[in-house]
Structure formats: C-alpha cells, structure tokens
Amino acid sequence: MPHQVLCASGGESGRLRKKNGGETVISCESIYQWIYREAPHLIGYLARARKKRYPKCHKRAKRSFIPNRVSIKERPERATKREEAGHWESDLVVSSKSKYALQVCRKSRKTLIRKIGNKTVNESIFALENILKNYPKDLRVSITYDNGSEKA
Questions:
Q1: What is the DSSP letter of 75?
Q2: Whether this model's pTM surpasses 0.85
Q3: Could you give phi then psi for residue 142, rounded to 5 degrees?
C-alpha cells in the first residue's frame, strides 16, 4: 500500500486510503506538505516531481506612478471639452505577447502608437517623449494619464 500511495497524486492517495478501508482520510495538501518538509527523498514519486513548490497565487507587483502626472479630474476644461488641440491622453495597451504606448489628441482624436519592451513607468515616459518630440510645442499643451494598473 505505501508504494501505491506514493505513485499516485496527493488527491488520489487520500482517496486510496478511504477506498481500502482506512478510516483516516488524508488531504492531498497534507501529503504534499509532509513530503516536502519531512521526506524530500520521496519527491520523485509525486505526480509532479518538482524539487521546489511554487505558490498558486502570484504576488502583485508594486505599482509605480508617473511623477507630475495630471489626473482626469484635474485636466483643463479646454481639454475636457475638446476645444483646443495639444491636449493628449496617454494609455497602455497590454496583451500576452506585446505592449503598446498610446497617445490620443483630445481634439483631433489622432492616435499615436508605439510598441514598448515592458510596461514600466520609465519605458512609458520614454515612448511618450519619442512620440511627441516631433510635434511643435503648441501641440503639446497637456498630457492626462490613464492611471490603470497596466502602468504598474
């Protein structure tokens, strides 16, 4: 019986004990914890024979903020009403394979897109500077950032 229990996954091991007339039911998590803590030489017999256990939940990265950013609530009235060119909105589009920095002019709705390597604040600022540097100063009045988690 012990060899049969070790060759099964944790869940199967607990069910085998119950099936074979044992009154004690062992949870699969208890089996894994015991093997990793007390009997690491048995790890090779587990269904997923990994030397290290990885937690199922992922820690969130700390959010970083762009310095001197303007919130949507603090945006100039002329930008909100789309009365004047040169007011931009900045956002990030993130997919599983790529990341893009977007800038949209509030008045003309012209959209500028640049592919970026990662979603850090520095990368976003670098992309923003490179996109808008070719525009005259009167078309770079204000920038409003979307403060979503993708900028973290």
A1: S
A2: no
A3: -150, 155
Domain that holds residue 141: 72-151
pLDDT (tens digit per residue) in 80-112: 888 888 888 888 888 888 888 888 998 999 998
Q: What is the pLDDT of residues 115-139, one digit of tens each?
A: 888 877 788 788 888 888 888 888 8
List the CATH number of the domain containing 145: 3.30.420.10
Burial category of 88 from C-beta neighbours within 10 Å (exposed 0-12, middle 13-18, buried 19 and up): buried
Domain membership of residue 19 (yes or no) is: yes
- The amino acid present at 52, given as its one-letter code, is K
- Whether residue 63 lies inside any domain: the answer is no
Regarding whether 144 and 83 lie in a shared domain, the answer is: yes
Distance, in Å, from the CA atom of 109 to the CA atom of 11, rounded to the nearest integer, reads 56
**Residue 138 belongs to a domain:** yes
Do 37 and 77 lie in one domain? The reply is no
- Give the position of tokens 């004047």: 84
Residue 114: CB partners within 8 Å, gap ≥ 6?
A: 100, 101, 127, 130, 131
Which two structure tokens, joined as six digits, stand for 27? 């949870």
Spatial separation of the C-alpha atoms in residues 94 and 116, rounded to whole Å: 10
